[in-house]
Design goal:
This protein has 201 residues and is mostly beta strands. The protein has 2 helices and 12 strands, in the order H-E-E-E-E-E-E-E-E-H-E-E-E-E.
Length: 201
C-alpha cells in the first residue's frame, strides 16, 4: 500500500512540475437525441467552459485535460418546445505536437454530465422531464449521464479552434415512445458535435 501511494505521489509531482495551461472557451453544440428504432430530434446548443491542461512526462507533449462546461440547448418541433440545461465535467488525455506554427492536439476521454433542467412545453403547458408526476412514466428522464468523446484542437499562439464528437453511454430515457416507433417503447441517448473557440493563458 505504501508503494502505491508513493507511485501516486510521484505521478502528481511530475504533473505539477511540467507546464500547466488555463483555457476558456465557447462552443456551438448541435446535438441529437437518438431513439432506438425510432425518429429522434436535434436540438441546437451553445456552451461555455474552462479547462486546465497538465503536462505529463519530461517532454510535456502528453496532456491531461480536466475542466467543466455549462451548456443550454433547445428545439421546437411539431408544436412541442424542448429545452435542456447541462453541466459537464470532461476529462481527457491528449498529445500535443507542432506542425509549423500551428499546434495540433488529438484527444479522447470520458465525461460526466448532470442536467439541472430538461423541459417540454406543449400548448402553453410545460413539464419537467425529471418529474414523473408532471410528464408521466413514458417521458421521465435521468439527470446523470456518463459518456465519451474524441476530438482535435489546433492552436496558434494563445488561440484555439477545436472540433469533437461526444456520445453518452447511459440512457436519457429508458422507456419512452418517440415519433416513428409505432407505439413501441424505446430508449434514448444524447450525442453532440462540438465546435470550439478558445483562449489559453
Amino acid at each position: 500500500m505504501k508503494k502505491f501511494f508513493a507511485i501516486v505521489a510521484l505521478m502528481l509531482s511530475v504533473m505539477t512540475v511540467n507546464a500547466q495551461n488555463n483555457e476558456v472557451y465557447i462552443q456551438i453544440n448541435p446535438s441529437t437525441l437518438h431513439a432506438d428504432g425510432a425518429d429522434g430530434f436535434s436540438p441546437f446548443g451553445l456552451a461555455a467552459g474552462y479547462n486546465r491542461l497538465f503536462g505529463i512526462g519530461c517532454e510535456d507533449n502528453l496532456k491531461l485535460i480536466a475542466g467543466g462546461k455549462f451548456s443550454y440547448s433547445w428545439k421546437s418541433e411539431n408544436g412541442a418546445d424542448w429545452s435542456f440545461m447541462k453541466i459537464a465535467i470532461p476529462v481527457s488525455v491528449g498529445y500535443h505536437f507542432q506542425a509549423g506554427k500551428i499546434g495540433i492536439m488529438p484527444f479522447a476521454g470520458i465525461d460526466c454530465s448532470f442536467y439541472p433542467l430538461a423541459k417540454l412545453k406543449i400548448n402553453g403547458e410545460s413539464g419537467n422531464l425529471f418529474d414523473e408526476d408532471e410528464v408521466g412514466e413514458l417521458l421521465k428522464a435521468s439527470r446523470l449521464q456518463i459518456g465519451g468523446h474524441i476530438g482535435v484542437d489546433a492552436d496558434y499562439k494563445n488561440f484555439v479552434l477545436g472540433v469533437a464528437y461526444q456520445s453518452d453511454f447511459t440512457k436519457f430515457q429508458d422507456n419512452t415512445i418517440m415519433s416513428g416507433s409505432e407505439g413501441v417503447k424505446c430508449k434514448t441517448y444524447f450525442s453532440e458535435f462540438e465546435i470550439k473557440l478558445g483562449y489559453r493563458f
